[in-house]
Amino acid sequence: MPGLVRKSLDSPEETRPFEGGTGQLQLVNLEQGAVGRATFNPGWRWSEHVKPIAKTDSCQAAHMGYFVSGRMKVVMNDGEEMEYGPGDFATMAPGHDAWVLGDEPCVIIDWQGFADYAKP
What we know:
This protein has helices spanning 46-49, 51-54; strands at 14-17, 23-30, 33-40, 63-69, 71-76, 81-84, 89-92, 96-101, 106-110. It is mainly β. It has a single domain (14-112), classed as Jelly Rolls (Sandwich). The strands form 2 sheets. A 6-stranded antiparallel beta sheet has the order 1-2-3-9-4-7, with no helix packed on it. A 3-stranded antiparallel beta sheet has the order 6-5-8, with no helix packed on it. The model has no long low-confidence stretch (mean pLDDT 95). Residues 1-24 are annotated as: Disordered. This is DUF861 domain-containing protein. It holds the Pfam family Cupin_3.
């Protein structure tokens, strides 16, 4: 393994668009796994814009990420809910829906749950 590695999410190795032009996921692949930056535009909701791609009743990815900008509400299948915003670090277990709050895009860096996220 090299001592230094440099990759940029501004030049991703893969880009996956969400349904309806509501955002995208940009990925770089590291030996330890994929790291992604997702931009969720206002109006984005997992159950409307990723569910048709994932073909599951709720998001089944486990996320570990950092919120760069915007706000998002996440509701677990059991009813537990939380809002996240800029500067927040989050872990989310599989089994949730999520949507953007407000009129600002929500940008998240995730290094756990995006490898198979929104993958057809």
